[in-house]
C-alpha cells in the first residue's frame, strides 16, 4: 500500500524555542499543541490519535493524553530518538488511510536548557563502550567524523562550512536562538570537545516544542492553511551503539531515503529544500551522501562549495538547524515544521521561491535510526 498523498499536515506550530523559563517540558508541548490546532482550525475534541516522545517520560503518550484531557483511540510513543517524529507521520498516514483515526496530533517539548543546561537522556552508557568513558553522544559522532576524514579526505574546514552555512540561514530567521556571525576560523578555533569535533560543530542546547496536525487528504483543503502532503517516507535502522555500526561512513539514510524517494516518485534533483537533523556537522555530510545528493565521499567538497548556504543550489536547514536555530534534545519534528513553512511560503526572508517539494530527515540515537519524509504542495499530487 502506497501512502503517497493520502494524508496531509494541516497545522504546525512551535513553542518556547530558545529559553522558556519556568515551564516544564509538558507545558511547552501543550502550548505547541494548542497553537498547531489553532493553525489547523481544528478543535481539541476532534483529536482521536496522538503521537509523542518526550525526553525523560517513558509513558509520555499517556501523560500527554491526560494533560490534554483526551481519550484517544490510538496513542503512539515509539522512541527512536530524534527520528521518532518522522516515523510518527508514517504511522499517522496509515491510521488515517485505514480510517482508524480522523485527526492525528504529533507533538514534542523539552525544557533542557532552563532545566539543566545540558542534554537530558534516559539512556545508560553502552556496556562495551563505557570503560573508555566516551562523551555521550558526542564521542560517537566524533568517531564517525574521524573515519570519514581518514577514508575520504574530508577536512576540518569542510566540517566548519556546515556550521557556517547553518548560521547564515539562522541570520535570516528571527526565531533562531543564535544569530551572531560565524566564520570557518571561529569554528576551528572553538574549544575541542571530542576530537575532531569542536563546540561549534555541536548542536545547541535549547528549550522548545513543536506540534503537527495531520488529516486525510480528502479533507485537507477544508483548513485555513494550504495543506502539505506526505508523498513518501522510509526508515532505516542499523544499530544502537556506535561500536555496532556496520560502516561508520554509511548510515541508514541510504535505506530510508531510497524508500521515501520511491514512494514519492521523486529523485534528489527534484527536491527544492532539504531539512536535515544536524546534531553535529558530520551529520549533514553523511546524510547528503546517503540521501543521494552527492556521491559517497564527496560530501565535504559539496558543502565547501557553498551549495547548502543561502544562495546555493541546494538550500539545507533553512531555519538554521539544530546548530544555530533550536535543539531541545530531539530535533526531528523541527525539520518537519520548517519544511511545512517553506512549502506554504511562510518562511519570510529565508523563503525558497517556488518550493514545491521538501525533504525532511530525522536521526535517532548515534546515527542509529534514520527516517526520511518527502512533503509536497498540492501541485505535486
From TrEMBL:
Domain called Thiolase C-terminal: residue spans: 234-377
CDD domains assigned: SCP-x_thiolase
Keywords: Plasmid
Cross-referenced InterPro entries: Thiolase-like, Thiolase_C_2
GO-annotated molecular function: acetyl-CoA C-acyltransferase activity
SUPFAM superfamilies named in the record: Thiolase-like (SSF53901)
Protein name: Thiolase
Lineage: Bacteria, Pseudomonadati, Pseudomonadota, Alphaproteobacteria, Rhodobacterales
Amino acid at each position: 500500500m502506497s501512502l503517497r498523498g493520502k494524508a496531509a499536515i494541516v497545522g504546525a506550530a512551535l513553542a518556547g524555542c530558545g529559553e522558556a523559563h519556568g515551564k516544564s517540558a509538558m507545558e511547552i508541548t501543550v502550548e505547541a499543541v494548542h497553537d498547531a490546532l489553532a493553525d489547523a482550525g481544528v478543535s481539541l475534541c476532534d483529536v482521536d490519535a496522538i503521537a509523542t516522545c518526550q525526553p525523560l517520560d517513558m509513558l509520555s503518550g499517556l501523560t500527554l493524553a491526560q494533560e490534554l484531557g483526551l481519550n484517544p483511540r490510538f496513542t503512539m510513543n515509539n522512541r527512536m530518538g530524534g527520528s521518532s517524529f518522522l516515523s510518527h507521520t508514517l504511522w499517522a498516514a496509515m491510521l488515517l488511510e485505514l480510517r482508524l483515526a480522523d485527526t492525528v496530533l504529533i507533538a514534542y517539548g523539552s525544557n533542557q536548557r532552563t532545566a539543566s543546561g545540558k542534554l537530558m537522556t534516559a539512556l545508560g552508557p553502552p556496556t562495551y563502550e563505557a570503560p573508555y568513558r566516551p562523551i555521550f553522544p558526542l564521542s560517537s559522532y566524533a568517531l564517525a567524523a574521524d573515519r570519514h576524514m581518514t577514508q575520504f579526505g574530508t577536512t576540518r574546514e569542510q566540517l566548519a562550512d556546515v556550521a557556517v552555512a547553518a548560521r547564515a540561514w539562522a541570520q535570516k530567521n528571527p526565531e533562531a536562538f543564535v544569530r551572531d556571525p560565524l566564520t570557518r576560523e571561529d569554528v576551528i578555533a572553538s574549544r575541542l570537545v571530542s576530537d575532531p569535533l569542536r563546540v561549534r560543530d555541536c548542536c545547541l542546547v535549547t528549550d522548545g516544542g513543536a506540534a503537527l496536525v495531520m488529516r486525510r487528504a480528502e479533507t485537507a483543503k477544508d483548513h485555513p492553511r494550504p495543506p502539505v502532503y506526505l508523498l513518501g517516507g522510509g526508515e532505516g535502522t542499523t544499530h544502537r551503539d556506535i561500536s555496532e555500526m556496520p560502516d561508520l561512513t554509511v548510515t541508514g539514510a541510504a535505506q530510508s531515503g531510497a524508500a521515501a524517494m520511491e514512494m514519492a516518485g521523486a529523485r534528489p534533483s527534484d527536491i527544492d529544500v532539504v531539512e536535515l537533523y544536524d546534531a553535529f556537522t558530520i551529520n549533514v555530510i553523511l546524510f547528503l551522501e546517503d540521501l543521494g545528493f552527492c556521491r559517497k565521499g564527496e560530501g565535504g567538497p559539496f558543502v565547501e562549495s557553498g551549495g547548502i548556504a543561502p544562495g546555493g543550489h541546494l538550500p539545507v536547514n533553512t531555519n538554521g538547524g539544530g546548530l544555530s536555530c533550536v535543539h531541545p534534545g530531539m530535533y526531528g519534528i523541527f525539520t518537519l515544521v520548517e519544511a511545512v513553512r517553506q512549502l506554504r511560503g511562510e518562511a519570510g526572508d529565508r523563503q525558497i521561491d517556488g518550493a514545491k517539494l521538501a525533504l525532511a530527515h530525522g536521526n535517532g540515537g548515534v546515527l542509529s535510526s534514520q527516517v526520511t519524509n518527502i512533503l509536497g504542495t498540492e501541485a505535486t499530487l
